[in-house]
Recover the amino acids of this structure.
């Protein structure tokens, strides 16, 4: 029964619901005040632009990393006022590196980053930096510094990055969220939502996020807090 979200089997009625998990908000905020995270912030800050887009993902096809970078490429081409000002910093975690499809995927990601950087690079600026390592504290520091957090997986059971980012962020960051992740049910109303295959929609979401007034940003963050906690 789609309307009631139930399944009847052997005389029993089973409710089919989403039960999103929470995050350790207190522990995460304590981590943000640690010397290690502050040190990473200091190292990352010179890489940031006037505005900074961040993503934090395992390096696997389901995370839709390539389409996110292609949307950023389209953004820079269509709206050249962002060139020299906006940076995209990706924190990619190695996973299943012994499998050839994952190796090839990461090669494609790296090649695309190099192509975009080559296309727009100036003496003082290049559009994308990325880290390929399992470094949670560094990723937390990056999410604290971002103006836009891009979470656009093809599909994801939950995706806690969508909750961790708004919790730690210090810049009124805007969440761009795929409609096919578990966190969407709680956070979708106040995020900029995208269909994961929609390159044009993702490009426009990036533009909207980067041009969103501060009061609108803060309103969205405040509205999300009850669902994060």
């Amino acid at each position: 029964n789609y309307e009631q979200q139930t399944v009847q089997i052997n005389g029993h009625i089973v409710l089919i619901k989403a039960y999103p998990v929470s995050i350790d908000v207190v522990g995460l905020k304590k981590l943000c005040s640690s010397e290690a995270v502050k040190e990473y912030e200091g190292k990352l800050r010179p890489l940031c632009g006037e505005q900074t887009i961040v993503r934090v993902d395992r390096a696997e096809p389901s995370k839709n990393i390539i389409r996110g970078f292609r949307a950023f490429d389209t953004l820079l081409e269509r709206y050249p006022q962002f060139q020299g000002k906006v940076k995209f910093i990706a924190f990619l975690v190695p996973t299943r590196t012994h499998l050839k499809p994952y190796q090839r995927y990461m090669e494609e990601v790296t090649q695309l980053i190099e192509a975009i950087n080559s296309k727009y690079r100036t003496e003082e600026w290049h559009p994308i930096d990325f880290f390929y390592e399992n470094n949670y504290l560094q990723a937390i520091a990056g999410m604290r510094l971002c103006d836009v957090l891009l979470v656009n997986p093809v599909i994801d059971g939950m995706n806690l990055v969508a909750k961790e980012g708004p919790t730690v962020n210090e810049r009124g960051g805007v969440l761009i969220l795929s409609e096919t992740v578990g966190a969407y049910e709680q956070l979708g109303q106040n995020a900029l939502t995208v269909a994961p295959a929609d390159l044009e929609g993702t490009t426009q979401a990036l533009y909207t996020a980067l041009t969103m007034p501060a009061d609108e940003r803060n309103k969205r963050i405040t509205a999300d807090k009850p669902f994060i906690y």
